[in-house]
Every structure is written in C-alpha cells, then in structure tokens.
Design brief:
CATH topology: Thrombin, subunit H
Helix content: under 10%
Strand content: 35-45%
Largest sheet: 9 strands, antiparallel
Strand order of the largest sheet: 2-13-12-17-18-21-15-14-11
CATH architecture: Beta Barrel
Distance between the termini: 16 Å
Number of domains: 1
Number of strands: 21
CATH class: Mainly Beta
Order of helices and strands: EEEEEEEEEEEEEEEEEEEEEH
C-alpha cells in the first residue's frame, strides 16, 4: 500500500514528544523505576559510511505532537523504517506523507542532507488500529514481522545507501566469522546525535521466520534502526531493523533495554527490490 500527498518544508527545531506507538512496552511490562543499569551504547559522530546514511525520521502529527524514529537510506530516494512510527494513535490512522521528513546523518545542528517524504509503502496486512491492539501502545505479536515501511523521498540524496542482506536462520556474529553486529539510532536520551552498540548479537528468523531477536542495547527513538553487519574490510549491510524492546527499564520518560525484537530483511527484501530497483 502506498500513500501519496503533497509535501511542505519541515519546521525547524522539531523535538521528540512521543512515538506514534511507543513499543518500549510491547512484549513485557517494564520494570519499576530504578537506577539504570550500565549502558553499552556510545555516542557516534556520523561522519563515515554507513552511518552517514542513517538518520532521523521526523513525524509532525500536530503543533504540539511530534515524534521521531530512526531510518536508513537504502536507495537514493528511499528510506527504510518501522511502520508504527507512521501511525497516529490519537487519530487511530496513518499519518500523511507530508507530515514526515528524513534528516540523514544528523549530529546536533549539522546533518548530511534533508528530504521531504512524498509517499510511503507499508507492509501488506499491517493493521495498527486501536481495535486490533492488545493495549494502547502495543501491537500484536503477529504484526512484528510486518512493522516496516519504505519512504519515498521527494528528491534524491547524494549519499551512499546501505545495502540489505537476507540471511536465513543466521546467528550473528557467530555464523559470520570476523563480522561485527551493530545497532545505531537516534535514541530518546540523545535525539540529535546517534548512539551505537557495536559488538552485540542478533538471531535471524527468531522467534519465527521474518522476525529477529537482537541482544543490542537500545532505547525509545531507535525504532526502525538498522541492525548492521560490519565486515572487516569496511563493507556493511542491513540484515533487519529493530522495532521494539523487551523487558525495558524506565529511564526518565523513555525505556531502555538490552534485548529487542524486529523485522528480518527477508520480510521486506522483495518490496525493496521492487521499489528501490525498478
């Protein structure tokens, strides 16, 4: 499904208020407020590829209702992110493309490029309406594998996209000697500078085909963040996207976890091939 709409320029100084659907509490109830555990994430200056192709997906749902997620440039005019970032839970419907903007490689007040979104493509069968959700801020387990969206930018970006890689039933990094697994995104505690957990792990097609389980440190705001395989020679590929945390602990107004769930590349590879490589 593709939505099309005319676009306007993004407002300046957009600050994250709340995700369209806050999946931090999707799978298990969060722990009670307490001192946060040690954090493996470190700030990242996105000056080199593939991190220049990772950016903020800003969603303006109203004058005082704005949110952000993380997205990855996978083609000159296409960005991959989590579908739930585009759903307005207040109105119980999808936002319009003109409400969405992509900022690549944002680092405080600098970035590698900005673009308006003119359309987006959702996973077939995804349904996030209130009547289908087990709770206000959650989605059913069978929707996790459909929690992806492809944004079409109004103008191409002069950046090198990140390729995607379909790995079936892989347990990384163990099944890919020499490779490093990393999760990088724009978290709620550093919304204008990406953070990275480099050296974590991911299981592809777990707990069911088309999904993934990652053991990477993450936080609210990193929905849609790429799960990357970094090769020794400098090559990199996206093997899936992170969309939810499990067993999250409350840190301020957000949730942080060392374990997450997401969508394996096998779920969206065909759509990417059709959309990005016509």
């Amino acid at each position: 499904m593709t939505y099309r709409q005319s676009t306007t320029r993004p407002p300046r100084g957009c600050r994250s208020r709340r995700h369209a659907l806050a999946l931090a509490a999707l799978l298990t109830a969060p722990a009670h407020a307490q001192a946060p555990s040690p954090d493996r994430r470190v700030p990242l200056e996105p000056t080199v590829w593939p991190f220049t192709a990772i950016g903020r997906v800003n969603v303006v749902q109203g004058p005082a209702h704005r949110s952000h997620c993380t997205g990855t440039l996978v083609g000159p005019r296409h960005v991959l992110t989590a579908a739930h970032c585009l759903f307005d839970a207040r109105l119980d419907t999808w936002v319009k493309p003109h409400q969405v903007f992509f900022v690549a490689g944002q680092a405080r007040d600098r970035n590698a490029g900005t673009a308006e979104v003119e359309a987006f493509r959702l996973a077939p069968g995804i349904d996030l309406r209130r009547a289908t959700r087990p709770e206000r801020d959650g989605i059913t387990a069978d929707m996790i594998g459909r929690d992806w969206a492809i944004l079409t930018l109004r103008q191409p970006m002069t950046l090198t996209p990140v390729p995607w890689l379909v790995l079936t039933g892989a347990d990384l990094p163990g099944s890919r000697p020499g490779a490093v697994v990393a999760l990088a995104g724009y978290a709620a505690d550093r919304p204008y500078l990406p953070v990275i957990d480099r050296g974590c792990a991911v299981r592809i097609d777990a707990p069911v085909p088309g999904q993934l389980v990652d053991e990477c440190e993450s936080m609210s705001g990193e929905s849609g963040a790429p799960v990357l395989v970094l090769e020794p020679g400098g090559a990199a590929a996206l093997v899936g996207i992170h969309t939810a945390v499990t067993g999250g602990e409350r840190v301020g107004r957000a949730y942080r976890s060392a374990r997450g769930r997401g969508v394996a590349a096998g779920s969206f590879a065909a759509a990417l091939a059709e959309t990005v490589r016509p």
